[in-house]
Amino acid sequence: MTTPLAFAVQKPFNLKRRLLAQGLSFAKQESLSFLDFHKHTVTDCCNGLHMNLTFLTKLEKRLAKYAIPHLTYLIVGGMAVAFLLIAAKPSFGEMLTLNLHEVARGQIWRLFTYLFIPPSDSHFFILFVLYWTWWVGMSLENEWGACRFNCFYALGMIGTTIAAALTGGAEGNFWINISLFLAFTTLFPNYQVLLFFFIPISVKWLGLMTGAFLFLSFLRGDWATKGAILAALSDYLLFFAAYWWKYAKEWHHQSRTSTRTVSFTPPPPATDPMEMRTCTLCGACQRDGADIRVCTCTKCGKPTLFCLEHARNH
Q1: 290 and 178, same structural domain?
Q2: Cα–Cα distance list, 80 to 123, 129, 140, 242 (Å)
Q3: Which domain range does residue 289 map to?
Q4: What φ, ψ does residue 228 adopt, rounded to 5°?
């Protein structure tokens, strides 16, 4: 038989064990549901990534023998030569543009020479552009290999040519080079550069600003610009669509998952008001064994707490 006092002592501990068991069961269920969701998420992402990588691998195998090693040197060298020729004879630049009407008349070189048109006629700025293009291109080629880098650049070039044929507008290599930079910021997001030569900044922030610039350019541009942007970014989407899909799925899952903990706070110990009574004169406390009395007399004028000794002679 359990006494009331024993029951009062055991009940909090039984309640605590019961709540702890429920909490562990809940945590186990949450963990299993999280692992199950995460398993399906990873499986879906890996399937998409596998399909994408399989296509790229097949494309690489077919085009490996045509890959140009150190393609970046050819691009940068062609831009430097084109800049010097245009500086010597400005009308020479018109011979390099992607004009499909002239291509149909036999000027086949225009399908390739537009890739070398410099974005500026400034001697200082062209040095910066050449160095930047070389640095980004070599970083991508060292990371991917010559064949994959060739595929990335060739897809952008083919897409730009098709867009020019559909829209009737001639665009240069600006948007293709932008796609190279976006690929670089995706592969090396935490790489730091000096903005304006003295402000350190991670390239991922430059990538976000570049993405905003592309979005605004697409909204404000004509059909030729819209087509060139979509064409130049088609290779980027082909190479990184699975990556961004996986990132979006993980971010969505993390935003919906919150850590739930069950905390047990023991109740404060119960205090008996009778145990806290103390003598007004000497401070003796009833919980220490003193006999505290409530006295009312003409001298005190109101009920006052006294120990037995002071209750008799105060």
Answers
A1: no
A2: 11, 10, 21, 36
A3: 273-312
A4: -65, -40
